[in-house]
């Protein structure tokens, strides 16, 4: 599979990203067959990491309330709520949801969880007994899945999906300051730290996220039909991030 950014440059596979190998992953059963669980994290978590650059624990610990519409832009708000942890203060951020995830029906999943009165986005993932993380539990399943379906490569694990997102931002000529904001990395540009203390607008970041082009045309949406990107059914629930 070849991925291009809007300028038309080709991205070549390397040992750190999934570029050139996503087709094999997307041809595997969880992306092709009708899902028994439309909220299966084996389907959603890799796609969220690839399209938004979130870490595995950030994804798996999400509450439904972490998905908010801000100025008409659906976003994931990463914060340290009850039972949640973040790698650093810089990891506390708001990331607009990529259009591909909206087309695949992510907002339908949110609506389903709301109807179920289920606070967590992925309620069936449990913390591991060893490290007490969702990641350890899920990583074992993701590794076993890739081995079972002949898409295993030790150089391309779940974290490599986040690496791919970072790589695609660079290729799409995303300014480093906005790339670091999306990735949850520490900002070291003094000009940005002192003169842009409130960060970038959701509109600015949405444009950067959607500049990444990934072909999802072969993926079967869990809700069977691609969803319109109209998100007016989710009320604006923007909340201040905790100090």
TrEMBL record:
GO BP field: DNA integration; DNA recombination
Matching Pfam families: Phage_integrase
Tyr recombinase domain boundaries: 9-210
Biased composition (Basic and acidic residues): 234-243
Keywords: DNA recombination
InterPro entries, per database record: DNA_brk_join_enz, Integrase-like_cat_sf, Integrase_catalytic
Region (Disordered): 221-243
GO molecular-function terms, A-Z: DNA binding
KW S-adenosyl-L-methionine (keyword) present: no
Superkingdom in the source lineage: Bacteria
Protein name per Swiss-Prot or TrEMBL: Site-specific integrase
Organism for this UniProt entry: Roseovarius gahaiensis
